[in-house]
Design goal:
Helix 4 runs parallel beside helix 6. This protein is α+β, with helices and mostly antiparallel strands. The chain has eight helices and five strands. The radius of gyration is 17 Å and the shape is globular.
């Protein structure tokens, strides 16, 4: 029982933390808008960021949240990334209404790391600026199936760019998320 409670508390702490790198980048973009005297863009970004922060904190108090709640935070995250990358990509949502209208629960922030990967490693480096992020979710055999697809540069090219980056960091986001999915299942 103690081990279970410790595990739950660790997961709660993990969910309560937003990626510090993401926060730093968002604040830098807001500062850029402020320095460029683009008050409207800075204001919109601050509003979206504060709503995202509130949702993440609220959702982090629970092991499971309604799919719709997690989707709202995901949409805010994507909107911020679109602003950050000056609309280099569009997003297409194909979400089955039954999931958002029903009582379907998922672990909070479980989809976000996959979306982040698609944006950071696939769409951000797409030269033509015609990136598309497809996010779909539907029920199949009683399970929620979520697909995150992009028309970015591809894994091989992204890996080559990462290898040439002088700042090497080990990404744990997907590993932690896959572990969470395994525990949840």
């Amino acid at each position: 029982e103690l081990r279970q409670k410790t595990s739950e508390l660790e997961m709660q702490a993990l969910r309560a933390q937003m990626n510090p790198h993401f926060i730093f980048n968002i604040l830098n973009t807001i500062e850029y808008y402020a320095l460029e005297n683009n008050k409207e863009a800075a204001s919109v970004m601050i509003q979206k960021f504060s709503r995202l922060t509130r949702l993440v904190l609220e959702n982090s108090m629970n092991q499971l949240v309604p799919f719709e709640n997690d989707l709202k935070s995901l949409q805010l995250y994507i909107a911020l990334e679109q602003m950050r990358y000056a609309d280099k990509f569009k997003v297409v949502y194909n979400i089955q209404e039954q999931i958002t209208e029903g009582d379907y629960l998922i672990p909070p922030m479980i989809i976000q790391p996959f979306v982040e990967n698609a944006i950071i490693h696939g769409l951000r480096n797409k030269a033509d600026g015609n990136g598309i992020l497809n996010l779909s979710a539907g029920l199949q055999n009683g399970y929620i199936v979520v697909r995150v697809e992009d028309n970015g540069i591809g894994r091989v090219k992204a890996a080559a760019l990462k290898a040439n980056n002088p700042i090497q960091k080990k990404s744990l986001g997907l590993k932690v998320t896959q572990d969470r999915i395994s525990i949840f299942n």
